[in-house]
Design brief:
The complex is a heterodimer. Chain A is of the alpha+beta class. In chain A, 42% of the residues lie in helices and 10% in strands. Chain B is mainly α. A two-stranded antiparallel sheet of chain B has the order 1-2. In chain B, helix 4 runs parallel beside helix 8 and helix 4 crosses helix 13 (254-264). The chains are: A alpha+beta, B mainly alpha.
Chain lengths: 447, 303
């Protein structure tokens, strides 16, 4: 799927997520980039013969492959009996097709990247090793942020370890707003503030430019809005957490905003990635994640400004969440060398060399120690993103089932939301009918 | 009769023939027939790749036709695509073949140039190009803007038009039927044209009374091949809609929906059932075509 957001909200959301995982790349559709690099395997040549060979799989860019292979080189240099065969695939969806096929064939990689959309499915089928069973001298996870205690964990058993963290963020291109800092929104704003700000700004924009994309069909924007009302996207037993009433209210909010002319029309939204339009000053803001600041900034010379999603007001629950479950590492339960594979995870989390080699390419590292270690070497953009992240960590939502334990069928439900909302946008369905359809069909999917 | 068979099997060339056929036979049984039987079995199960397939009988098929509006939508999209693009493509291919048949200068160059889109058409690069051509600020709208046409939609991302941009892409790939038509046209005996001329037939009459009847076997062949090929179209819709079949499911081709069910949602059993329905539909349409061909296809040697 999806290079960068190429179509309306939903798909925009999907591809957004694709990028959150770092799938990226227009060539994503053609996917298989084959095995990455040669690095890791050679490291054993100096050592004691390489008695153990592990396979490690992940998705993502060439840069990520280089960094990951570097970590494996460092590890095998210290453990001469281990050699690691990297299996990297550029595209996120293609990666999961491969992992699912391998798992079905009983031959999965020993060590592989896990993601919240698939986590529970694999956990419920005992496909992953319970890492709590590994002794602490092999795998020490005591430094992990406490905010991650529910991510990668089922019934008290830790199956996967977060490697890269991020949180929801908006990027605003100030060049479209006006020169004054006071033209930018305040540090914290409510959904009403947001709507007012958009409506006020819209008339001053040149023809064809808009403030925001229509996010009515976007699960990643709906989810924090629900959390602020104390509602989870999914319930703990894997049912739909919201009903038609909430969805109607949500659609109404966007319908009102649409009338002010602040939102991109759907066909415009579908035709070019939002970040591209942000760079071209055709769009004022994009809904994104904190680990994407560098990538988004690299597209434009206008210095982007990072902001929070709208909040539910002072009395509401926090809606944003520290997300580590987009990039997790797990060990196959079928692995003959589970302990060694778990040891590699410990190495990645705790070893200074490994931390520096990985950098923040997968997001911010999951321990304070690692973040402090990387801080001095970060460029200005990444420093801004880190500062934003640390500020947001202080009052993040305590739990989001959407990111911690979404049920199987999640991707179907989010696709349903975005697709059905498109009918509303194109005037082929009413908000009321769409909301009813979504709730009814989502319930069917989740049974 | 039985002696013939015995003689036949003893023929010294047969072993060699089998040997040479072995790679194909292995491929056919190992890579085509077995997987097909496997998929037939899977179509009767619920299978998510992670757990063993669970037998559910005909449930997948019942689900397809009674409880899946997206499936019906994918059929609609595919039928529109096939029934609009195939006739247009064949007409264009025949028209160009008629033109190219006359001895133009540099005829080889023209043939190659017209064939080129067929080589490229199925590729990802062309699908990406198509997005740009028919975008709201794409080349087409810029060109139309020169003529004062304003406020035009983004053709690829508007559910009312998106599928027709893909039809256009398909029509543009008229190269292979054109080449086949060319070959067919050149086989029509010249004396028939001479006879028609002597009888005072004009160009139109000659075309409809000589060219078309003698070309019917070729038209029939092209029709069959193009219909089958069009039902199986996947890449353009996948790339143009970034794999979603959007906007609003307007480019949700049958194969794209099958792919989504199988490889995005991991409903392998359901996807297998869809594949078998497609096979049955293509087989049925082809059979109908063959039956219908009795009434309009004219074979010279039979007559």
């Amino acid at each position: 799927m999806a290079a960068r957001p190429t179509s309306v909200h939903g798909s925009s959301a999907l591809s957004r997520r694709g990028f959150l995982f770092g799938a990226g790349g227009v060539a994503a559709a053609v996917a298989l980039a084959g095995c990455g690099g040669t690095g890791a395997k050679t490291a054993t040549s100096g050592g004691g013969g390489g008695d153990i060979t592990l396979r490690a799989a992940w998705w993502g860019s060439q840069d990520r492959a280089k960094r990951t292979n570097k970590v494996f080189d460092l590890f095998t240099a210290k453990h001469s009996n281990v050699s690691i065969t990297p299996e990297s695939i550029a595209d996120f969806d293609a990666y999961w097709q491969k992992i699912a096929t391998q798992t079905a064939g009983g031959n999965p990689a020993d060590l592989y990247m896990q993601n919240y959309r698939y986590f529970l499915q694999y956990a419920s089928k005992d496909a992953m090793l319970d890492l709590s069973s590994v002794s602490k001298d092999k795998l020490d996870l005591s430094a992990l942020d406490s905010t991650l205690s529910t991510q990668g964990v089922v019934d008290g058993k830790r199956y996967a370890v977060p490697l890269g963290l991020n949180t929801e963020s908006l990027y605003i291109n100030p060049a479209t707003v006006g020169a004054k800092a006071s033209d930018l929104p305040p540090d914290s704003w409510t959904w009403d503030d947001f709507a007012d700000w958009c409506a006020e700004l819209a008339p001053s924009l040149p023809k064809g430019a808009h403030v925001s994309d229509d996010q009515g069909g976007s699960d990643i924007v709906l989810e924090p809005w629900l959390l602020q009302r104390g509602i989870q996207f999914f319930t703990r037993d894997g049912k739909l957490g919201f009903g038609t009433d909430e969805l109607m209210e949500w659609f109404d909010y966007w319908a009102k905003l649409r009338k002010t002319g602040a939102l991109s029309p759907p066909d415009q939204q579908a035709q070019a990635p939002d970040t591209q339009r942000l760079a071209q000053r055709k769009l004022t803001l994009v809904w994104s994640y904190s680990n994407l600041m560098e990538a988004d900034q690299s597209l434009t010379k206008d210095p982007l400004s990072i902001h929070t999603y709208p909040t539910g007001g002072p009395d509401a629950e926090p809606g944003h969440f520290i997300i580590g479950s987009g990039q997790m590492l797990c060990v196959s339960s079928k692995s003959d060398h589970g302990t060694e594979a778990a040891e590699i995870i410990g190495f990645i989390i705790n070893d200074e060399g490994a931390i520096k080699a990985l950098g923040i390419e997968r997001g911010l590292p999951p321990t304070q120690k690692a973040r402090d270690l990387l801080r001095p070497d970060l460029d200005e953009v990444s420093k801004t993103a880190l500062a934003y992240f640390e500020k947001q960590s202080k009052n993040a939502a305590p739990d989001s089932i959407y990111y911690a334990a979404p049920p199987a069928g999640t991707s179907e439900v989010t696709a349903l939301l975005s697709r059905t909302y498109q009918d509303v946008q194109f005037g082929k369905s009413t908000a009321k009918a769409a909301a009813a359809t979504i709730v009814k069909q989502a319930k069917g999917i989740l049974t | 009769m039985s002696r013939d068979v015995a003689q036949y099997s003893r023929h010294p060339h047969n072993r060699a023939a089998l040997l040479f056929l072995a790679p194909w036979l292995l491929g056919f049984f190992g890579l085509t027939l077995l997987p097909m039987l496997g998929s037939l079995y899977l179509s009767l199960t619920s299978y998510d790749l992670l757990t063993a397939p669970r037998w559910i009988g005909l449930h997948n098929f019942a689900q397809l036709f009674t409880a899946d509006p997206r499936y019906i939508q994918s059929i609609k999209v595919t039928v529109i695509y096939v029934f609009v693009s195939v006739p247009l493509r064949l007409v264009l291919a025949l028209a160009l073949a008629m033109v190219l048949r006359r001895g133009l200068k540099a005829i080889g160059l023209f043939r190659a140039a017209f064939y080129l889109p067929s080589l490229l058409g199925g590729s990802v690069a062309i699908a990406v190009l198509w997005r740009r051509l028919f975008a709201g600020d794409g080349l087409l709208n810029l060109a139309l803007g020169e003529f004062g046409l304003d406020g035009l939609p983004s053709w690829v991302s508007n559910p009312d038009y998106a599928v027709y941009t893909l039809v256009l892409l398909a029509v543009w790939e008229f190269g292979s039927p054109m080449i086949i038509f060319l070959a067919g046209l050149n086989q029509i005996p010249k004396d028939l044209y001479d006879a028609a001329a002597v009888d005072g037939a004009g160009r139109v009459a000659t075309f409809f009374r000589v060219t078309i009847p003698l070309l019917t076997p070729i038209i029939f062949f092209n029709l069959i091949m193009q219909v089958i090929g069009s039902f199986k179209t996947f890449t353009p819709a996948f790339v143009v809609s970034a794999g979603t079949g959007g906007p609003a499911d307007s480019t949700l081709f049958y194969t794209l929906y099958l792919y989504q069910q199988g490889f995005t949602f991991f409903h392998m059993g359901y996807a297998a059932a869809m594949a078998w329905v497609l096979l049955a539909v293509i087989a049925a349409i082809t059979a109908v075509n063959f039956l219908g061909s009795r009434y309009w296809v004219f074979y010279e040697d039979v007559a």
